[in-house]
Amino acid sequence: MEGQSKKGIEGTTLDLASNRHGNLVSASNDENLKDIFHQIRTSKKPAVINYGASWCHVCSQILPTFCQLSSKFPKLSFIYADIDECPDTTQHIRYTPTFHFYRDGERVDEMFGAGEERLHDRLWLHS
């Protein structure tokens, strides 16, 4: 629709790496994020959710790395959720960026803040 702004990763003005494995998705609203949670629980595939915000400078700094790492770890599902676009399902998020790591349908780890090396190491650990 004309006049409607893009949401999620597509709505950023950042130059983001393309994902060649199809394992990077963006939650566009609460219903979409609920569906993603359901997929994580039922598929049991390892996943990481990056909770960020368009106004968060640190989030904007780590998002390109998050997208690049999605190509480096093809067995992991990468999800970006903007807390302003998914306010009901992200009301428990108190700091951006926050990363939640899932294995076998359960959250097993969490990381606050940015840090390319820390994020890489956590992804390696959970892949």
TrEMBL record:
**Residue ranges of domain Thioredoxin in the record:** 5-127
Top-level taxonomic group: Eukaryota
Name the Gene3D superfamilies for this protein: Glutaredoxin (3.40.30.10)
Q: Pfam families given for it?
A: Thioredoxin
Do you know which InterPro entries this protein is assigned to? Thioredoxin-like_sf, Thioredoxin_domain, TRL33
Protein name (database record)? Thioredoxin domain-containing protein
**What species does this protein belong to?**
Escallonia herrerae
